Amino acid sequence: WRSDGTPAGAVRVALIPDDVTVQASSLKVGNALLLFLSSERSGTTLWRTDGTPSGTFAVKKVDSRDAYVHHVDATGDVGLFVMNDGSHDEVWRTDGTAQGTVRLDSFGRSTRLLGVLGSWVYLSTLSSNLRSLHVERLSLEGGGKARITTLDNPYANRPDAMPYLQRTLRSGGKLFFTMAIGGTGPGHQDVSLWVTDGSAAGTRFIHRPLDLSLDSSSPLFDTGHGSLLFCGSEYGATEPWFTRGTS
Predict the structure, then answer these.
(1) What is the C-alpha to C-alpha distance for residues 47 and 35, in angstroms, rounded to an integer?
(2) How would you class 243 by CB atoms within 10 Å of its CB: exposed for 0-12, middle for 13-18, buried for 19 or more?
(3) Which end of the chain has fewer surrounding CB within 10 Å, N or C?
């Protein structure tokens, strides 16, 4: 359905079969919304809609099974999504057309998108021992897979200290992101702020800890003036902090 907030402006756009699920992940590329429809019978298909019945259609089948799209990102007219097919996380690029929807590469471990810088997409992948996050990159044209660096986990020797990517934000030609460390307690063991320019030397730690509660996900805000706002936590209190990209 499409709605402008009025009864007269609520219009059914498409009718979906009962056995098909519209996945929660979606992304906007250009003037279209891209959706993922899946079922055991028909597999997983990328759909496109501009809010009209004639502009709502299947673009391309991306997996023959009911695969799970768990992370999406869009930069201009380029959309990216990560899809788990049961054994691998596949990284795809799409412009909303069948020809422009291609698989870039796959990883045999948990993968999330950091964002795009230039002609490269940057990702975080979980190490095989579940104790570290790697920063990796792929060419937007396919190929060029390379590991940039591995992020330090000061709690790696503790049980259940598995790191994961929490938030990402592009600002000033750099990618800012937060890494959370899980644990057995009511909150995170650690949440730290990092930045990367796409190089190993330019990937650096900025600040810890951020908000350690489980319900805030340590929000990041781009001021548009070269500085970033975030929620820092010291001595048990959460406070507004800012950075220009260095500690």
Answers:
(1) 5
(2) middle
(3) N
